[in-house]
Write a structure and sequence with these properties.
The strands form two sheets. Strands 3-2-1-4-5-9-6 form a seven-stranded mixed β-sheet. It has a two-stranded antiparallel sheet with strand order 7-8. Helix 2 runs antiparallel to helix 10. It is about 40% helix and about 20% strand. It is α/β, with parallel strands linked by helices. The longest helix is centred in the last third of the chain and has 18 residues. Helix 4 links the parallel strand 1 and strand 2. The chain is globular and about 55 Å long. It is built from eleven helices and nine strands.
Length: about 270
């Protein structure tokens, strides 16, 4: 049975994205242990071929990490609005960027299915690992297409079916979230391309080649705790995960984790 909590706005706003803590734990694992020297956020920015005076909207901006990691690269002429449906996430992004060398033009509390913007008002929309959480994805894509100018581009990042499969398998065996539909089924490379092709003339799939090599147990445990509902987390489950990860690290020096992440770059 699919777990509808993962695209239930009330649950997501209250539990997963009420504050930046859980998302930050997941970002941290990738930041610390990726084998690709080009980090995820720098790679995403590299794919954004936009004019020097672009009007940019990020939907589901989360912690604001994309902009914090690329503050030195944002063209002075860009007008960027960061939006999120969670007041806590938006406040966290505001705090993180407040003291940095770059600030967005605006922060906007908004749901991607009801964007308070006029038609054809932005050059680009960034949806960074968030569309798979949206219940009505058809409506979200329609809203994104509505606010984009005729020559506009959507940069939608997501995961493939094998993303962090070793950790997913550990969670399943520990009884933490085994019945969930994957991100890739909701909005992945194939499902996302099919959905976007109804609104966009050109959809490219771009893959960030990477893997994780994790030499420590607790970052994996923290990652799993960040994804699970509190009702699924028990001492027995976490001890099982610790033992399994420790065994693999002892045998190989680190736990290898498959990553399958990338971008759907869609042009109107």
């Amino acid at each position: 049975m699919p777990d509808r909590r993962l695209h239930d706005p009330a649950y997501l706003r209250r539990s997963q994205y009420g504050s930046p803590a859980r998302l930050s734990a997941r970002i941290s694992l990738h930041d610390r242990y990726s084998v690709n020297p080009v980090g995820w956020h720098r790679w995403v920015f590299d794919q954004m071929d936009l004019p020097a005076d672009a009007v940019v909207l990020e939907v589901g901006c989360g912690t604001g990490a994309l902009w914090q990691r690329n503050a030195d690269r944002v063209p002075a002429g860009w007008r960027v609005t960061l939006s999120d449906f969670s007041p806590g996430m938006l406040a966290g992004a505001d705090r993180r960027l407040r003291e940095g060398p770059w600030r967005p033009a605006a922060f906007l509390l908004a749901d991607v299915t009801r964007l308070p913007l006029g038609p054809a008002s932005v050059d680009a929309v960034i949806a960074n690992h968030m569309l798979y959480h949206v219940d009505d994805r058809e409506r979200a894509v329609a809203e994104i297409a509505r606010v984009l100018r005729p020559s506009g581009t959507l940069f939608a990042t997501t995961n493939g079916y094998r993303h962090v499969e070793e950790i997913v398998d550990l969670a399943r065996r520990a009884g933490m979230g085994g019945g969930r539909v994957s991100d890739a089924e909701r909005f992945g490379f194939e499902s996302g391309e099919k959905l976007l092709s109804g609104r966009f003339r050109d959809v490219e799939v771009l893959v960030h080649a990477n893997a994780l090599q994790v030499p420590d147990v607790e970052p994996v445990v923290g990652f799993l705790e960040s994804t699970a509902d509190a009702r699924e987390v028990s001492r027995v489950a976490l001890d099982y995960v610790r033992d399994e990860v420790a065994r693999k690290i002892s045998a190989h020096g680190f736990l290898t984790v498959t990553t399958e992440a990338g971008m759907l770059r869609a042009r109107k």
